[in-house]
Design brief:
The protein has eight helices and 18 strands. By secondary structure, the protein is α+β, with helices and mostly antiparallel strands. It folds into two domains: about 100 residues, no CATH class; about 230 residues, no CATH class. Strands 1, 2, 3, 4, 5 and 6 form a six-stranded mixed beta sheet that branches. Strand 8 and strand 9 form a beta hairpin.
Length: about 350
């Protein structure tokens, strides 16, 4: 319907006021913008100009499509609006409930993160020599090691007591696996689109996703269990690792799925949670958090180490307040799931 717009590769479904919709992010792009770095890989290799100027909302029932303007200052979209009057609607015309479901687009964020891997360097000499290049972390997923993709997460930002929906990606130094920074974009209005950047202290070792994967593989108890499951008749699928910033530390979560041979119906069987030098595997996230951060009378954290006999560590364990925050986030997610189930169970009108 609008072939002059580039579509994001991940449209998403939402439920609003008893109806279902698809939301499709759309971009205005160009490969002729002066003095701009072309995108080498990703959703649109070769482009050097991109804006998420349009949100397309599709009614799942009758297929009605509406285009809403996200960036009224985009000169490329301004030309299309003059060429096709009446096609694009103001964002104010979108219902408040559907607007609350809008999220920052994944492909655009990935492109911005890719450019920031180089352009975070502000010293001309360092930039010229490429002395501080960053890359997307490596992670082990489904038996292969690949670059980590940005992911959406519900979390509290450092210094805030309110849950926010964000898209986030960590960075590691080139040719190294430790985490050096992370970048996020807000999805909630009125701060939609605001970028947040946190750089970690270089003098302190913060584990990256690939190092956490190695810790999981080196855990005797976990590796034995995975080997036992991953035999003839069944297969183990290690899900994507999620890095969750909480307080002044990080929580790493990996879901494990079991799939019977000859079927394509994986079931969640275990959740691996790690922080610092500790890693545990339990049937649920809540049980894993309790196992990892079991608190004693004084409120200090204790857990089962993945490497018995190893003392000390490079990262502080999360305090009891952080554990409470993690549980609160889990409770909020459960409320949302219960609400969605009740909506879907209601009779259609």
């Amino acid at each position: 319907m609008a072939p002059f717009l580039l579509l994001d590769r991940d449209p998403y479904a939402v439920v609003s006021e008893g109806k279902q919709y698809w939301i499709q992010d759309a971009y205005t792009t160009s490969d002729h913008f002066p003095y701009s770095q072309p995108q080498a890989t990703g959703a649109a290799p070769g482009i050097n100009y991109i804006r998420n100027s349009v949100k397309a909302v599709v009614d799942m029932f009758d297929g009605t499509v509406s285009f809403y303007i996200m960036d009224p200052n985009d000169p490329v979209l301004a030309a299309y609006r003059r060429a096709f009057p009446g096609v694009f609607k103001d964002l104010a015309e979108l219902s408040a409930d559907i607007k609350s479901h809008l999220r920052y687009p994944e492909d655009l964020f990935a492109i911005q993160a890719n450019q920031y891997e180089t352009f975070h360097m502000t010293d001309p000499q360092v930039f010229y020599n490429r002395e501080d290049l960053w890359v997307a972390p490596k992670e082990k997923y489904d038996g292969a090691v690949n670059s980590m993709e940005p992911y959406y997460i519900l979390m509290k930002l450092p210094g805030s007591d309110q849950l926010e929906y964000l898209i986030l990606t960590p960075f590691t130094p080139q040719n190294r696996d430790n985490m050096i920074a992370w970048l996020a974009a807000r999805c909630d209005f009125p701060d939609y689109g605001r970028m947040l950047f946190y750089e970690l202290p270089k003098e302190k070792l913060i584990y990256g996703p690939n190092q956490i994967s190695a810790m999981i593989d080196q855990s005797t108890l976990i590796s034995q269990q995975l080997t036992l499951w991953d035999q003839k008749g069944s297969g183990v699928i290690r899900g994507k690792l999620v890095v969750i910033p909480i307080e002044n530390s990080f929580l790493y979560v990996v879901p494990l799925y079991l799939k019977a041979e000859g079927t394509n119906f994986p079931q969640l069987k275990r959740v691996i949670v790690a922080t610092g030098d500790k890693v545990v595997m339990e049937p649920s996230l809540n049980e894993a958090l309790v196992s990892l951060f079991g608190t004693n009378q004084s409120g200090t954290s204790q857990g089962q180490s993945s490497q018995p006999g190893q003392k000390g560590g490079t990262q502080a364990l999360l305090p009891k307040e952080a554990l409470d925050q993690a549980r609160a986030q889990l409770a909020e997610a459960q409320k949302a799931m219960d609400s969605l189930k009740s909506i879907l169970a209601a009779p259609a009108h």
